[in-house]
Amino acid sequence: xxxxxxxxxxxxxxxxxxxxxxxxxxxxxxxxxxxxxxxxxxxxxxxxxxxxxxxxxxxxxxxxxxxxxxxxxxxxxxxxxxxxxxxxxxxxxxxxxxxxxxxxxx
Length: 106
Prior knowledge:
Strand 3 and strand 4 (103-105) form a beta hairpin. The chain is globular and about 40 Å long. The protein is α+β, with helices and mostly antiparallel strands and 106 residues long. The chain has four helices and four strands, in the order H-H-E-E-H-H-E-E.
């Protein structure tokens, strides 16, 4: 009984990880893009990509807050600078947000 339960749990964990989407995958598949505000944006609707976006953006926000506090500047200013760097570093073919708020491939 224990071994069959363990097998079932392991199978569920492996199947879940097979469906998990990486940030690189989400970007190259056109689901997520870099925004000017320093956060990821949803380019095309996809639940897995949206969940990933929310998790990454929460981590970014926490990181930006630490940097802002350390340097006595606003979180928004840190996020904007990070957004500029992220857009500059975005690989060709991935989406970035224009100053008009539109998505375009870099």
